[in-house]
Amino acid sequence: MRDRTEIDTLIDLMARLPGLGPRSARRAVLHLIRKRALLLTPLADAMTAVAASARECVNCGNVGTADVCAICADETRSNGLLCVVEDVADLWAMERSNVFKGRYHVLGGTLSALDSIGPDELRIPQLVRRVEDEAISEVILALNATVDGQTTAHYIADQLETRVALTSLAQGVPIGGELDYLDDGTITAALNARRRI
Amino acid sequence: MRDRTEIDTLIDLMARLPGLGPRSARRAVLHLIRKRALLLTPLADAMTAVAASARECVNCGNVGTADVCAICADETRSNGLLCVVEDVADLWAMERSNVFKGRYHVLGGTLSALDSIGPDELRIPQLVRRVEDEAISEVILALNATVDGQTTAHYIADQLETRVALTSLAQGVPIGGELDYLDDGTITAALNARRRI
Ligand SMILES: [Zn+2]
Ligand SMILES: [Zn+2]
Q1: Is the ipTM of this complex over 0.95?
Q2: How confident is the model at residue B145 (pLDDT cuts 50, 70, 90)?
Q3: What is the mean pLDDT of residues A20-49?
Q4: Residue A168 forms beta bridges with which residues?
Q5: Distance of CA B19 to CAs A23, A25, A186, B41, Å?
Q6: Are the C-beta atoms of residues B69 and B55 closer than 8 Å to each other?
Q7: Distance of alpha carbon B96 from alpha carbon B84, whole angstroms
Q8: Of A7, A14, A48, the CB nearest to B54
């Protein structure tokens, strides 16, 4: 048998990452061993640093390295606009578009009867409290266009509609999107929301 | 802007792993932060351990945690059979089939005029020396069924044919197929039906 030691432990752990299976984990570990100084050691150090420093923002649920995240702490951002997203990956996607300059609120998932996820399992009570306490003029519900995402958006809208203006992202054909590759629901939504040129 | 700190460093490094791009690296890092105790810290520790201990076997080119790998050090394995593979991933694939009980020799690639890889860039001189020095009765050329793999097999066969019996894996390895993509049964069948060259 080959040496079942640290190398196999590392392969087993790598295989538990989303997007990697046993085979790609083995490939990745061989690559890491070949690039020990350039990649393996820096990666080990970065993971150790993140394990020590990463935390959830007490205010919005974003991930950062302080109790209050850099976005919540940034005084140049607008307090009036609050963008509600399902998870931190969605927040990062919004930030990459580089167009939104307000604040965020990360729910941590969507309502799901099937998985017994109710409002209290998400950051919905905290959202209602922020709308009450902060000077928020508009809440943008940037939830995914899935059944659970839209169910969650409707629930939040019910909670907040008397307190604040509510908007959602426009639905339509993505930039560069080809009609032939879009699902019927997207085409229907884009057609229903058609604009005069 | 969000906190460009250890978390972003970790994402950048993860995106350099084979099979992961920027998007899957971000997903993986969020997953790691959520599973800090169960996955992130163990992974950081395993990487640190592998960075400290992993080395190439001086005899066969396998990767292990000692100067001579566990396969070369295993006295229960047959010394007479030597299986030549392109890289360590192929050796691991052979081992998973659990049918070969001889020794290995890892070339570290294939001959390639295009990439200026000649015999001396591979572990071919060491292979010739092992055949001269060790009591090897048969060399199994388990190279990939690619053009470069087969060119390399022919070159090695020319070097060794007067000194030792040479075999190759049987048909059953698909044309253009790489060992590391094959299921264990295919490898077993191909090994059992190996032919004299
Ligand atoms: Zn925050
Ligand atoms: Zn060895």
Answers
A1: no
A2: confident
A3: 95
A4: A141
A5: 10, 9, 30, 22
A6: no
A7: 16
A8: A7
Q: What would the pLDDT profile of A124-136 be if each residue is shown by its tens digit? A: 999 999 999 998 9
Q: How close is the nearest chain B Cα to the Cα of A131, in Å?
A: 22
Report the residue of chain B nearest A42, measured CA to CA. Answer: B13
Question: pLDDT-derived band of residue A64, with 50, 70 and 90 as boundaries?
Answer: very high
Q: For position A180, what pLDDT does the model report? A: 75
Q: Give the number of beta-carbon pairs within 8 Å between A and B.
A: 175
Quote the pLDDT of residue A197.
64
Contacts of A71 in chain B (CB under 8 A): 1-2
Domain with CATH 3.40.1360.10 in chain B: 63-168
Q: For domain B63-168, which architecture applies? A: 3-Layer(aba) Sandwich (3.40)
Q: Per the CB < 8 Å rule, is B70 touching A1?
A: yes
Q: Give me B145's structure tokens.
A: 């069924």
Alpha-carbon torsion (A52, A53, A54, A59), positive or negative: positive
CB spacing of B6 vs A92 below 8 angstroms: no
Q: Is the pLDDT of residue A1 over 60?
A: no
Q: Where in chain B is the domain with CATH 1.10.8.420?
A: 6-53
Which residues of chain A are within 8 Å of residue B50 when distances are taken between CB atoms? 6-7, 10, 29, 32-33, 40
C-alpha of residue A168 to centroid of ligand 1, in Å: 21
Domain A6-53 has CATH 1.10.8.420: yes
